[in-house]
User: Fold this.
Amino acid sequence: MNTSPNSTPERSASENSTSLLPEDFQFSQGSLQDFDDCPRRFLLRHIEGRPYPAPEAEPIRENERRKERGVRFHELLCQEHSGVPREAVRRQASGDEKLEVWWDQYVHREPVGETNRTYAEISLEGEVAGYPLIATYDLIAERPGGTFEIFDWKTARYKPDRGQLASRLQTKVYPYLLAQAGAGLTGGEPPRPEQIKMTYWFAEHPDNPETFEYSDYNAEVDEEDLQDQVGKILARTERAHFEKTEDRTHCKFCTYRSHCGRGAQAGNIDDGETYLEETGSTQADLDDVEEIEF
Ligand code: SF4
Assistant:
C-alpha cells in the first residue's frame, strides 16, 4: 500500500537552479541520516549514486549472514500481519536456530497487542521543503479508539540506548510523516500527533522495547529540524561543499573508506556499539538491507 499527499508545495526557483539535487530527488530518513552523519557520504550515495567500493564490515560472510537473517525475520513478521497462519510462518523459520528463537520470542511477547487493523510494509509519501519525503514502515497498528502505533523491528545484537534512538532521524521522520500523510489510513484526516507513538522492538532484547510518544510539540520541532536539514543540503551548491565528516568513527564501517582515504580495512562487526550505530546510518532508504542491522 502506498499513500501520497494530494499536492506538493512548489520549490523556489533559486533552489531548483542552484542545488545539486536531481529534480526527482526523494528524501528518506536514511538519506537525511547520511547527511547528518557525513555530508560527503550523502553526496556520494544519494547525488552521485556511486557504487559501494568496500565491504561494510568484517568478517564479510558473517556480516552477510546476519543481514539475510534480519531480512527473513522482517518477512516473517510481514506475513504474520498479512494473515498467514502462524504455523506456516513458523515452518519458514525452521532450520535457522536464531530465526526460530526470534520468532518464538515475538509470539510469546505479542508486542503489537490489540489492534483494529495493521498495515505491514506500508509506504507513505509526504513532503519536506518541496521535495517528496518517503518511508516504508515495518508495521503501523491502528488501536481501538483510533490511535496509531508504529513498530520497527530491530535484529542487531546491540541495543542502542534510548538517547541514541531519540536522536535518530528515523524516530523523527516516521511519526512526522504519519501525521502529515496518513490520511489513507483513517479515510479522513491524518492521525493527530497525540494519536501516534513509535516502538522499536528488539529481537535480541525482546523484553526491552523502546516507545516514543508523539505530540504537537514534537511535530513542530521535527518540521523545523527537517526543513533546516534540507535547507543545508540545498545550500551546498558545489561538490566541495559536501565535506567529509570530522568524526572518523563514522568512517569505520562506511563503504566509501578507500574512496575517501579513510582506511582500507573494514571495522569488525563484533565492535558492537560503533558498528550498529553506523550501519543504521548507512541505509539508502528503508528497503535497504543495511537498515535491518541497526
Ligand atoms: S569514509 Fe568517512 S568521510 Fe568518507 S563518506 Fe564515509 S563517513 Fe564520510
